[in-house]
Amino acid sequence: xxxxxxxxxxxxxxxxxxxxxxxxxxxxxxxxxxxxxxxxxxxxxxxxxxxxxxxxxxxxxxxxxxxxxxxxxxxxxxxxxxxxxxxxxxxxxxxxxxxxxxxxxxxxxxxxxxxxxxxxxxxxxxxxxxxxxxxxxxxxxxxxxxxxxxxxxxxxxxxxxxxxxxxx
Length: 168
Known about the structure:
Layout: H1 6-15, H2 17-42, E1 55-59, E2 85-89, H3 95-106, H4 118-125, H5 138-148, H6 153-162
Antiparallel strand pairs: 1-2
GO molecular function: 3'-5' exonuclease activity; DNA-directed DNA polymerase activity
Keywords: Coiled coil, DNA replication, DNA-directed DNA polymerase, Nucleotidyltransferase, Transferase
Coiled coil: 6-33
């Protein structure tokens, strides 16, 4: 049995490049099919009933909160309390503190960074966002930054909103 040289192997693979890519895509699609079906079934279902210290309900002045607590919505009508209550989530964020400490350490004033700086925007268009709050997750990089390739700060604001999903 004759051993093929590396160059010969590379040449033969290159000749079949398109066929190999097509086969790879077909195999990947077939492998992903059950996953996609499961995801479609799970979309929109209620995942948990939870609480956190930043969740507040703001009521009308004449509303007796005792009449409605504890709160849980029916599975078939998640908006039935929206006319009575305004739900506000006040979540803790460390970013302002981190920015201030970084400013003290580096001398780089975050308020002086231009929203139009091409080098900064290139971080988002290349999805090189590890460590940037809200943009460093695989979900945001893979599903929002990579396909949308934002070029303006206003687009980053929109992506930030999309990254939280619906009914949040």
